[in-house]
Amino acid sequence: MASTATAAGDTGGRNWTFLTNHGHVLLAIARDPTARLRDVAAEVGVTERAAQAIVADLEAGGYLHRTRVGRRNEYTLNPAGHFRHPAEADRQVGALLALFAETPAPEAAPHP
After folding, report:
1. What pLDDT, in 10s, does the model give residues 58-93?
2. Which of 7, 17, 48, 92 could form a disulfide with 41 if both were Cys (CB 3.0 to 4.6 A apart)?
3. In this structure, is residue 8 part of a structural domain?
4. Where are the beta strands (DSSP E) in 1-106?
5. The domain spanning residue 69 has which CATH number?
6. Which pLDDT band holds residue 5 (cuts at 50, 70, 90)?
C-alpha cells in the first residue's frame, strides 16, 4: 500500500527546496544589500565560506556587483540577468527578485 503525504511540506523525511543556495543568497542580498556575509550565511543555512563562494559565482556571472564602502561591502543586483538553466534562460532573475524580495520587477519597454 502506497502512502501519500498529508501535509503540503511532508516529503517523507527528505529535505529539499525549490531554490538552490545560489538563489537563496541572491534573495538575501536583495533584501539587504549591505548585509554581512556572516548574516547571509546564517539566513541561508550555509557556512560563511560557502556564502563567499556563492557571492563570487554570482558576481562572476554578472548577477551582482560588490562595492567596498568603508569596512563593509555593498551589493548592487542586476535584475536583467538571465537564468542559467536552458529551460528558464529566456527569463530574467528580476522576476524572482520581485516575487521573493519585494523589489520591483524590471519594467518592460513601452510599446509604441
Report:
1. 999 999 999 999 999 999 999 999 999 999 999 999
2. 48
3. no
4. 64-69, 72-77
5. 1.10.10.10
6. very low
